Amino acid sequence: MNESREIFSVKQLTRYIKDRIEFDDVLQNVWVQGELSNFVHHSRGHMYFTVKDEESKIKGVMFAGHNRYLKFLPKNGTRVLLRGSVSVYERDGQYQLYVKEMQPDGIGSLYLAYEQLKERLAQEGLFDPTHKRPLPAYPHTVGVITSPTGAAVRDIMTTIRRRYPLARVLLFPVAVQGERAVPSICHAIEEMNVRGDADVLIVGRGGGSIEELWAFNEEAVARSIYRSHIPVISAVGHETDVTIADFVADVRAATPTAAAELAVPHMDELRDRVVVLTRRLGSALRGEVRQMRVRLDKVQRSYVLRQPARQLIQHEQRLDRMCERLTNAMVRTAERRKARLERVQERLAAYSPATAVRRNQDGVAMLSARLVRAMQACLHTREQQLDRNLAKLDALSPLKVMRRGYSLVFRQDKKDAKLVTTIDGVQTGDALTVRLADGSLSCRVEGTEKRENT
């Protein structure tokens, strides 16, 4: 029996399965609900993750071309709804979900983006109360950044003119919703700061849905408000509408009308305050005048002003006593200085160079005399020693012995004379010289005779 069978390579089998999956209409546009794990946001912008539930899991990828429009940043543990297609990654032979759309599961993506941006900006310190600037008490110009056609601008204008008509209102019209809203609001804030003619800014709009208010939740608007050198009042929507701009602004107003009331004081309140301050000032001035009059009366009744000549006499007497004390003090000081000078001169004379020279000359003379005496004594001792040595030398002199009858015999050779001390040193016929105490004799040896006992 011939059995026909088809054998696949691994690549061919994987490609076959991939084709079957990609031709399935259900798998090419599928919604999946699950929790993200192993989330990696690659440096090239692609997102890799695993979607799982209690029973199973599947790998997923969302390329940068699709995730760039996400309003929130996915992370591990985020529950999401994913729309995409299923295919096979041929290298690993693994099927995975290619995501084209991602939504948070359970809460809206805008709310999640709002919470994430709020947390990040708070960590950077944009909401720190230390960065909040106080509003000017009496602004000359109020800058209003809002839509020129909305109800908010009418409420702000009406409120400012009613409360504080002295203030000038500078309206910078902007788009407050739609794609142009964010760059329009940011440009308005920066331009108002460049112009520098507004003392305070009101940035806001009337109420609306979260989508319509979303421009005030954008990071660019928040950072523009944070960089503003002019104090900013946020006035977005109603009391219940809280945006990122409200957290960054120096003051948050519940409504545009409330923002206008915060920006300028009320004229009636100022008049009442002026009246109260005028009364306080008048009362304070009257009290000060009374105190000054009392002090004037006391001065006028003082002894100095009533008898100025007597006061001068007392000072004259005091001056005389002080002059006398000063003179005595100067004399005593001069005497002490003179005595001290004399003591110093005496001490200085003891150490003068002339005195030291004389003292050293006396010492040199004394030492010279001692040296002469010592040299004379030494010379006398050496002369006596020399005499004794001469006497000893004279006693040992050969001449002295020869005077007692002894003589010295020398044999006359051709070159020199040799002392003869034994008969063996001469021969018969040798010429000899016999030296006596008073001269010498020339002799010749006739014969020799040696004693037996020598």
TrEMBL record:
Annotated localization: Cytoplasm
InterPro entries given in the database record: Exonuc_VII_L, Exonuc_VII_lsu_C, OB-fold_nuc-bd_dom
Keywords, alphabetical: Cytoplasm, Exonuclease, Hydrolase, Nuclease
UniProt similarity note: Belongs to the XseA family.
Protein name (record): Exodeoxyribonuclease 7 large subunit
The protein's enzyme class: hydrolase
Source organism, top-level taxon: Bacteria
EC number(s) stated in the UniProt entry for this protein: 3.1.11.6
Single GO cellular component term: cytoplasm
Alphabetized GO MF terms: exodeoxyribonuclease VII activity; nucleic acid binding
Pfam families: Exonuc_VII_L, tRNA_anti_2
Reactions it catalyzes: Exonucleolytic cleavage in either 5'- to 3'- or 3'- to 5'-direction to yield nucleoside 5'-phosphates
Main localization category: cytoplasm
